[in-house]
């Protein structure tokens, strides 16, 4: 009786009971419930990834998407392409410079945010603002601010006496590169700051006080105590930041479209230009996969480092 | 009169003053840098065209009365309302797919142990690291094969590639927070595993599920790369792509309406992300932060 009552209570009928019984094996239950996610990822991430690898070794175009096997022809052609080489260099410059600036100013900002002051919540919300706005929208706002004729930055610069006549920010090579880095930093700095804030505030204050009593200066406290403790968080944040900055095309595509004269392309934007706009799937895929081995190794190293630390 | 003590405290006060001037000064400088683009969007949106493009005016201020002209242009003369509708439709489809796939996956990955569960969890996390620029070419061919060329539904199909990993990891955190004893007690009472999930854990985890609904929607809403690759007709665009591409005709940028659209997209997303910032960061750092 009690069994029936319970069955009714949980709404299990005869067949449901059978399936329910099968599902009561922890193994079956686990595999069945995780299956949709795995199938989706296999179909829409792993399978396309395999196609991308095929593209790199074929002369596929939008008109002939299967193409013929051409071996390393694409790789050779891409490495011979001056614009690609410039894009590769730019990708490293943009990523490393923005990353370094973000880490430096992010730490600085994190310490500002850790202080208790009036209006801290509002300040925090405003500090986060660039990160909470869609990338494409932020890039567009900056494009308008750096407009050759109506640049408000130049207006301010000229009226404050920083320069007599502002540069054509997005139309000249060096100013355009500075602009792209600036927008990357503008957008991602809040993320670094908030991750660092969370990390630093998780460091037990007793340890810091003890170190203080032992006469450790701020550099020692930072370098020998805080950094090792917050390292796992730092590494994950750095990994994400690195991967997304190195592979992003949004900022470049919206602000300069790789110009002037293809000097500001990054790998991702040039791959888009080649693969989507010009329709050369083979070349485009070769470019977009070019950084994959580097990023994979970086990711594995980061993750191993984190794992090693969490065991300690 | 000038005793050492007074002298001392003046120096101390000076030092404190210098400290706080330095603090507020740096904070103010950074806030200007961070917020100026948004102020600029705001000013551009509400300025009259004669004011906006008059180079002899101070661009930071209004010289003619503020106007809704640009906003009206956006709503009446562009496909803006269609983009909003497309965003709602595609966003909801992405949310539905994400929730249906993530809830069961996150549940078993966080609350049961089976061979390979740990590897699968990390595998799903790592797919979040696969950037759109790696997959847009093969996916564009997949979209062609499925007959979804230039259709917003291609986006609904593809966006879960990044919402699923992100949301699964977020949800795993929520599910781990539900004490094991509760489900164990239900199991002893004869409740099936599935029953325990639906009747016990899910009702407690409603806030977690709502959080992933919000993230899946906003992540889909602000995506740019896939949207640019798969959709070219104006009537199929979602809001972010529409605003940044359709208000440029040839070489002419409709800056007033463009910034009006930018402002309308940014405000809700910014509010949501500010409310859920800590959760968002937890989702990205994948539990390394606790």
Assess the beta-strand content of chain A as a share of residues: under 5%
Please provide the count of β strands of chain B: 2
- Helix-residue proportion of chain B: over 70%
Write down the domain tally of chain A. 2
**What is the CA-based Rg of chain B, rounded?**
26 Å
Largest interface: A-B, 100 and 98 residues
CATH domain class of the largest domain in chain B: Mainly Alpha
N-end to C-end Cα span of chain B: 56 Å
The number of E-state strands of chain A comes to: 0
Descriptive key words:
heterodimer; A: 312 residues; mainly alpha; MetI-like fold; 15 helices; 76% helix; disordered N terminus; B: 290 residues; 75% helix; 1% strand
What can you tell me about this protein's structure?
The complex is a heterodimer of chains A (312) and B (290). Chain A has 312 residues and is an all-alpha fold. Chain A has two domains: 53 residues, no CATH class; 231 residues, MetI-like (MetI-like fold). Chain A has 15 helices and no strands. In chain A, helix 3 packs across helix 14, helix 5 packs parallel to helix 9 and helix 11 runs antiparallel to helix 15. Chain A is globular, with a radius of gyration of 26 Å. Chain B has two domains: 64 residues; 208 residues, MetI-like fold (Orthogonal Bundle). In chain B, strands 1-2 form a two-stranded antiparallel sheet. In chain B, a hairpin with a 2-residue loop joins strand 1 and strand 2. In chain B, helix 3 crosses helix 14. Chain B starts with a helix and ends in a 5-residue tail after the last helix. The relative contact order of chain B is 0.13. Classes of the chains: A mainly alpha (312), B mainly alpha (290). At the A-B interface, helix 1, helix 2, helix 3, helix 5 and helix 6 of A face helix 1, helix 4, helix 5, helix 6 and helix 8 of B.
């Amino acid at each position: 009786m009690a069994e029936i009552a319970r069955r009714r209570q949980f709404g299990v009928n005869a067949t449901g009971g059978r399936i329910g019984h099968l599902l009561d094996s922890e193994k079956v239950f686990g595999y069945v419930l995780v299956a949709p996610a795995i199938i989706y990822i296999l179909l829409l991430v792993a399978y396309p990834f395999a196609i991308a690898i095929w593209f790199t070794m074929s002369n596929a175009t939008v008109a002939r998407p299967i193409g013929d096997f051409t071996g390393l022809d694409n790789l050779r052609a891409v490495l011979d392409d001056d614009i690609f080489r410039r894009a590769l260099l730019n990708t490293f410059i943009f990523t490393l410079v923005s990353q370094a600036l973000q880490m430096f100013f992010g730490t600085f900002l994190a310490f500002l945010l850790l202080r208790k002051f009036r209006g801290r919540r509002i300040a925090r919300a405003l500090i986060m603002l660039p990160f909470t706005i869609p990338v494409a929208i932020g890039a567009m706002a900056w494009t308008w601010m750096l407009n050759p004729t109506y640049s408000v930055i130049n207006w301010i610069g000229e009226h404050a006496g920083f320069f007599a006549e502002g540069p054509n920010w997005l139309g000249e090579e060096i100013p355009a590169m500075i602009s792209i880095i600036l927008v990357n930093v503008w957008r991602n700095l809040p993320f670094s700051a908030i991750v660092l804030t969370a990390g630093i505030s998780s460091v037990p204050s007793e340890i810091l006080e003890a170190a203080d009593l032992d006469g450790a200066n701020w550099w020692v406290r930072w370098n020998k105590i805080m950094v090792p403790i917050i390292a796992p968080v730092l590494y994950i944040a750095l990994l994400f930041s690195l991967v997304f900055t190195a592979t992003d095309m949004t900022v470049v595509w919206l602000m300069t479209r790789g110009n002037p004269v293809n000097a500001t392309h990054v790998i991702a934007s040039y791959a888009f230009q080649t693969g989507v706009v010009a329709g050369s799937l083979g070349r485009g895929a070769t470019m977009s996969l070019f950084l994959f081995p580097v990023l994979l190794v970086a990711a594995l190293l980061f993750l191993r480092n984190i794992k090693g630390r969490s065991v300690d | 009169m000038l005793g050492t003590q007074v002298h001392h405290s003046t120096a101390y006060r000076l030092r404190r003053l210098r400290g706080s001037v330095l603090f507020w000064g740096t904070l103010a400088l950074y806030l200007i840098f961070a917020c100026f683009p948004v102020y600029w969007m705001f000013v551009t949106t509400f300025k009259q065209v004669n004011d906006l493009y008059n180079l002899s005016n101070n661009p930071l201020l209004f010289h003619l009365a503020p106007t809704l002209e640009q906003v009206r242009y956006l709503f009446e003369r562009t496909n803006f309302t269609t983009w909003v509708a497309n965003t709602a439709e595609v966003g909801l489809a992405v949310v539905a797919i994400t929730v249906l796939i993530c809830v069961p996956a996150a549940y078993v990955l966080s609350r049961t142990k089976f061979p390979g569960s740990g590897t699968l969890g990390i595998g799903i996390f790592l797919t979040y690291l696969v950037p759109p620029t790696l997959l847009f070419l093969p996916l564009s061919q997949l979209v062609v094969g499925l007959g979804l060329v230039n259709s917003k539904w291609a986006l609904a199909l593809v966006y879960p590639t990044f919402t699923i990993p992100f949301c699964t990891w977020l949800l795993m955190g929520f599910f781990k927070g539900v004490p094991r004893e509760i489900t164990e007690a239900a199991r002893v009472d004869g409740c099936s595993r599935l029953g325990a999930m639906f009747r016990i854990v899910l009702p407690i985890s409603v806030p977690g599920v709502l959080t992933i609904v919000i993230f899946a929607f906003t992540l889909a809403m602000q995506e740019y790369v896939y949207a640019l690759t798969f959709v070219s007709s104006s009537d199929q665009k979602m809001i972010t792509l529409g605003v940044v591409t359709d208000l440029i005709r040839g070489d002419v940028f409709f800056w007033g309406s463009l910034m009006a659209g930018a402002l309308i997209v940014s405000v809700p997303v910014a509010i949501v992300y500010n409310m859920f910032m800590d959760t968002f960061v937890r989702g990205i750092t994948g539990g390394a932060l606790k």
